[in-house]
Design goal:
mainly alpha; flat; 72% helix; 199 residues; two-stranded antiparallel ribbon; 2% strand
Length: 199
Protein backbone atom coordinates (compact mmCIF):
# COMPACT_ATOMS: atom_id res chain seq x y z
CA UNK A 1 0.00 0.00 0.00
CA UNK A 2 2.93 2.33 0.74
CA UNK A 3 1.72 5.94 0.27
CA UNK A 4 -1.93 4.84 0.48
CA UNK A 5 -1.28 3.67 4.05
CA UNK A 6 0.49 6.88 5.08
CA UNK A 7 -2.65 8.74 6.27
CA UNK A 8 -3.44 5.92 8.72
CA UNK A 9 0.06 5.60 10.16
CA UNK A 10 -0.32 8.47 12.62
CA UNK A 11 -3.27 6.62 14.19
CA UNK A 12 -1.51 3.26 14.35
CA UNK A 13 2.05 4.26 15.23
CA UNK A 14 1.58 5.38 18.87
CA UNK A 15 0.18 2.00 19.93
CA UNK A 16 2.91 0.14 18.00
CA UNK A 17 5.60 2.26 19.67
CA UNK A 18 4.01 1.63 23.06
CA UNK A 19 3.97 -2.14 22.46
CA UNK A 20 7.56 -2.12 21.18
CA UNK A 21 8.68 -0.29 24.32
CA UNK A 22 7.25 -2.96 26.65
CA UNK A 23 9.63 -4.06 29.42
CA UNK A 24 8.41 -7.52 30.44
CA UNK A 25 8.68 -8.26 34.13
CA UNK A 26 9.13 -11.48 36.03
CA UNK A 27 9.78 -12.56 39.57
CA UNK A 28 11.96 -15.07 41.33
CA UNK A 29 10.40 -17.49 43.75
CA UNK A 30 10.68 -16.19 47.30
CA UNK A 31 10.81 -12.53 46.30
CA UNK A 32 7.76 -10.31 46.56
CA UNK A 33 8.58 -7.77 43.86
CA UNK A 34 8.76 -8.03 40.08
CA UNK A 35 11.73 -6.79 38.11
CA UNK A 36 12.45 -6.18 34.45
CA UNK A 37 13.16 -9.46 32.70
CA UNK A 38 16.60 -8.39 31.49
CA UNK A 39 17.62 -7.48 35.06
CA UNK A 40 16.43 -10.86 36.35
CA UNK A 41 18.36 -12.69 33.62
CA UNK A 42 21.53 -10.82 34.55
CA UNK A 43 20.98 -11.75 38.19
CA UNK A 44 20.37 -15.46 37.65
CA UNK A 45 22.93 -16.05 34.87
CA UNK A 46 25.91 -13.79 35.59
CA UNK A 47 28.43 -16.46 34.56
CA UNK A 48 26.89 -16.82 31.12
CA UNK A 49 26.68 -13.08 30.57
CA UNK A 50 30.29 -12.48 31.60
CA UNK A 51 32.02 -15.75 30.75
CA UNK A 52 31.54 -15.71 27.00
CA UNK A 53 28.98 -18.49 26.75
CA UNK A 54 25.83 -18.13 24.65
CA UNK A 55 23.11 -16.25 26.52
CA UNK A 56 19.48 -17.33 26.91
CA UNK A 57 16.83 -16.52 24.33
CA UNK A 58 13.55 -16.01 26.21
CA UNK A 59 10.09 -16.04 24.63
CA UNK A 60 7.01 -15.00 26.59
CA UNK A 61 3.72 -13.53 25.38
CA UNK A 62 4.96 -10.04 26.26
CA UNK A 63 8.28 -10.53 24.47
CA UNK A 64 6.47 -11.92 21.44
CA UNK A 65 4.24 -8.83 21.36
CA UNK A 66 7.29 -6.61 21.67
CA UNK A 67 9.04 -8.47 18.85
CA UNK A 68 5.99 -8.29 16.55
CA UNK A 69 5.64 -4.56 17.25
CA UNK A 70 9.30 -3.95 16.36
CA UNK A 71 8.89 -5.94 13.14
CA UNK A 72 5.80 -3.87 12.27
CA UNK A 73 7.76 -0.71 12.98
CA UNK A 74 10.52 -1.93 10.68
CA UNK A 75 7.98 -2.46 7.88
CA UNK A 76 6.54 1.05 8.44
CA UNK A 77 10.05 2.55 8.23
CA UNK A 78 10.69 0.73 4.94
CA UNK A 79 7.29 1.37 3.35
CA UNK A 80 6.41 4.90 4.49
CA UNK A 81 9.72 6.45 5.59
CA UNK A 82 8.63 10.03 4.96
CA UNK A 83 5.86 9.70 7.58
CA UNK A 84 8.10 7.83 10.03
CA UNK A 85 10.56 10.71 9.87
CA UNK A 86 8.03 12.83 11.78
CA UNK A 87 8.63 10.42 14.68
CA UNK A 88 12.36 9.88 14.11
CA UNK A 89 13.46 11.05 17.57
CA UNK A 90 11.04 8.73 19.35
CA UNK A 91 11.68 5.78 17.00
CA UNK A 92 15.47 6.23 17.16
CA UNK A 93 15.46 6.33 20.95
CA UNK A 94 13.37 3.15 21.07
CA UNK A 95 15.46 1.20 18.55
CA UNK A 96 18.78 2.24 20.07
CA UNK A 97 17.58 1.00 23.47
CA UNK A 98 16.72 -2.42 22.01
CA UNK A 99 19.94 -3.21 20.10
CA UNK A 100 21.38 -4.81 23.24
CA UNK A 101 18.12 -6.30 24.63
CA UNK A 102 19.64 -9.42 26.17
CA UNK A 103 16.48 -11.50 26.56
CA UNK A 104 15.82 -12.07 22.85
CA UNK A 105 17.97 -12.33 19.70
CA UNK A 106 15.19 -11.38 17.28
CA UNK A 107 14.53 -8.09 19.07
CA UNK A 108 18.21 -7.13 18.86
CA UNK A 109 18.43 -8.10 15.19
CA UNK A 110 15.23 -6.29 14.16
CA UNK A 111 16.22 -3.15 16.01
CA UNK A 112 19.64 -3.06 14.36
CA UNK A 113 18.33 -3.76 10.87
CA UNK A 114 15.73 -0.97 11.16
CA UNK A 115 18.26 1.81 11.72
CA UNK A 116 19.39 2.20 8.08
CA UNK A 117 15.74 2.81 7.12
CA UNK A 118 15.72 5.86 9.38
CA UNK A 119 18.75 7.16 7.49
CA UNK A 120 16.79 6.77 4.24
CA UNK A 121 13.85 8.60 5.81
CA UNK A 122 16.11 11.50 6.78
CA UNK A 123 17.51 11.65 3.24
CA UNK A 124 13.99 11.72 1.77
CA UNK A 125 13.29 14.74 3.97
CA UNK A 126 16.45 16.41 2.63
CA UNK A 127 18.14 16.62 6.01
CA UNK A 128 21.39 18.58 5.74
CA UNK A 129 24.61 16.59 5.37
CA UNK A 130 26.03 17.50 8.79
CA UNK A 131 22.86 16.31 10.56
CA UNK A 132 22.76 13.13 8.48
CA UNK A 133 26.38 12.36 9.35
CA UNK A 134 25.71 12.99 13.04
CA UNK A 135 22.73 10.63 12.93
CA UNK A 136 24.91 7.96 11.28
CA UNK A 137 27.63 8.38 13.92
CA UNK A 138 25.08 8.06 16.73
CA UNK A 139 23.56 4.91 15.22
CA UNK A 140 26.91 3.29 14.49
CA UNK A 141 28.35 4.08 17.93
CA UNK A 142 25.35 2.25 19.41
CA UNK A 143 25.73 -0.69 17.02
CA UNK A 144 29.45 -0.94 17.67
CA UNK A 145 28.81 -1.20 21.42
CA UNK A 146 26.10 -3.82 20.80
CA UNK A 147 28.39 -5.86 18.54
CA UNK A 148 31.04 -6.02 21.26
CA UNK A 149 28.51 -7.77 23.53
CA UNK A 150 26.78 -9.96 20.93
CA UNK A 151 26.82 -13.75 21.37
CA UNK A 152 24.47 -14.81 18.55
CA UNK A 153 26.05 -15.20 15.10
CA UNK A 154 22.92 -14.30 13.07
CA UNK A 155 22.29 -11.20 15.16
CA UNK A 156 25.93 -10.13 14.81
CA UNK A 157 25.59 -10.44 11.02
CA UNK A 158 22.49 -8.21 11.10
CA UNK A 159 24.36 -5.64 13.20
CA UNK A 160 27.36 -5.60 10.86
CA UNK A 161 25.11 -5.28 7.80
CA UNK A 162 23.22 -2.41 9.44
CA UNK A 163 26.51 -0.70 10.33
CA UNK A 164 27.64 -0.88 6.68
CA UNK A 165 24.25 0.26 5.33
CA UNK A 166 24.28 3.29 7.62
CA UNK A 167 27.71 4.30 6.29
CA UNK A 168 26.43 3.82 2.73
CA UNK A 169 23.36 5.98 3.40
CA UNK A 170 25.44 8.70 5.07
CA UNK A 171 27.49 9.11 1.91
CA UNK A 172 31.00 10.49 1.46
CA UNK A 173 32.63 12.78 3.98
CA UNK A 174 31.23 11.22 7.14
CA UNK A 175 34.68 10.19 8.36
CA UNK A 176 38.20 11.43 7.81
CA UNK A 177 40.88 9.07 6.43
CA UNK A 178 42.32 8.68 9.94
CA UNK A 179 38.88 7.80 11.34
CA UNK A 180 38.38 5.19 8.61
CA UNK A 181 41.79 3.62 9.33
CA UNK A 182 41.12 3.61 13.08
CA UNK A 183 37.65 2.11 12.55
CA UNK A 184 39.13 -0.60 10.32
CA UNK A 185 41.60 -1.62 13.01
CA UNK A 186 38.90 -1.61 15.69
CA UNK A 187 36.57 -3.61 13.42
CA UNK A 188 39.18 -6.32 12.84
CA UNK A 189 39.84 -6.56 16.58
CA UNK A 190 36.13 -6.68 17.33
CA UNK A 191 35.43 -9.40 14.73
CA UNK A 192 38.27 -11.51 16.15
CA UNK A 193 36.90 -11.10 19.68
CA UNK A 194 33.36 -11.88 18.49
CA UNK A 195 34.52 -15.04 16.75
CA UNK A 196 36.16 -16.18 19.98
CA UNK A 197 32.95 -15.51 21.96
CA UNK A 198 30.58 -17.30 19.59
CA UNK A 199 32.88 -20.19 18.70
Amino acid sequence: MKAEFAPYLTSVLPSVLSMAALNPEMGISGQETLAELTDVLREVTPAKAEGGEKTMNVMTDEIEEKDVALQMLSVFIDEVPEVCYDYIEQISKLLLAQTNYQANDSIRATSASSLPGLMKAAKLRNVDTASLHQLAKTFNANLYAAMQQEMDTDTLIEQVNAFKSIIDEAGPGMMTADEVAHLGTKAIDMVNESLKRIA
